[in-house]
Specification:
110 residues; 5 strands; 5-stranded antiparallel beta sheet; alpha+beta; 33% strand; single chain
Length: 110
């Protein structure tokens, strides 16, 4: 996760709601099902969550997205008030770096 900036007085309840709703939606799909080519976006009021595929490197699946969403919940708990960017990485075997198959952000809009 990469912080984008601190948002004073951000509604953390709303931020957590967006993550929870996205997680509930992700659990409706098979873990191996691909996310649509346009990616995924959810906005509730001024909280926006978005993820998109990286071009030509692999399929971003709902299962991968579910794992990232659960990690985001921990990040939001640990760093309240921070908007952030993130990468979705896929690892082969014992790789340490992996490769980016998607990227996105969670931000609060004015």
């Amino acid at each position: 996760f990469f912080p984008l900036g601190f948002i004073p007085n951000r509604n953390e309840t709303l931020t957590k709601l967006v993550l929870r709703e996205a997680l509930y939606e992700s659990l409706r799909y098979r873990t191996t099902a691909k996310i649509a080519a346009r990616g995924y976006k959810l906005q509730i009021k001024n909280a926006l969550l978005s993820v998109a595929h990286s071009t030509g490197v692999g399929d971003l699946t709902w299962g991968m997205w579910t794992v990232v969403l659960r990690e985001m919940q921990g990040y939001v708990e640990a760093y309240p008030g921070y908007d952030f960017e993130f990468e979705v990485r896929k690892y082969r075997g014992e790789e340490i770096e992996g490769y980016v198959i998607g990227a996105g952000f969670m931000e609060t809009r004015p």
